[in-house]
Amino acid sequence: MAASAARGRRAAVGWSLLWVALALVYAAGLRWRPGGAVAPAVAFLTCYVVELSLSADNVAVMLAVFRHFRVKEADQPRVLRWGVIGAIVFRGVFVLLGAALLARVGWMEYVFAAILIIAALRMATARVSPGREIEGRIVGVVRRLIPVATDPPGGRFLVAVNGRRQATPLLLALVVIELGDIVFAVDSVPAAFAITRDPWLVYAANLFAIVGLRSLYVVLAGLVSRWRYLDRGLAMILLYVGATMAARAWVEIPTLVTLGVIAGVLAATAALSALRPVRPDAHG
Prior knowledge:
It is a single chain. By secondary structure, the protein is an all-alpha fold. The protein has one domain. The protein has 10 helices and 2 strands. Strands 1-2 form a two-stranded antiparallel sheet. Strand 1 (158-161) and strand 2 form a beta hairpin. Helix 1 (2-32) packs antiparallel against helix 2 (38-68), helix 2 (38-68) packs across helix 7 and helix 2 packs across helix 8 (213-220). The chain starts with a helix and ends in a 9-residue tail after the last helix.
């Protein structure tokens, strides 16, 4: 069993590196294609780094959901696969809606900036991880709306009980993960629009981050709970991009500077977490 899990983690690392490599190839294509330029390539990479870093908190929610519903490890890839498909669709809707609002409502960028700053402050001051808070609220709502089979067979989303269709914990886990991603999109999509107004670059960055989420989950599932300063690092990133978006009318921060700031915050967060890791028994 341990050898199989190790092989699975190695495969997940390989897939994660592949998706990162493909994102870098896409950025290179933006730069070196006929008529290409540095600016869109840097904007895409910056958006991608932001979306990928925010995905780490998404992984924490997925882990909490799977533990809450006692989803077996063998069933988790199926939930993740459908979760990724749903996220691709919903992020596309959010990007189109965000682009339309920014194009038609001149003051909407200040609303987006306020959303990012408020999210940053909540993330920095919350006693409980915002991801866990979201998971707890959604679980309660979903349980009241959907009848759940108490002892269903494994690997199925719906079962028939006394002639009635009932949800299984597997379906509840999928619904909670999808709703959680929608909540996360409220922060992540405005963060990307704070970097570039090109909706395709925003969606492409989301797409590359999302398609690698399944393998990223396997890689980070055992590590994300020990990344002690993750929420504070993400809060600093959201605060920075929100502030630059609000101040855009007066000062234009080069995208390359933003990329450097985000990379520096992530490096500092990782270094501090490595120096002062959370004890494994601190999470029960």
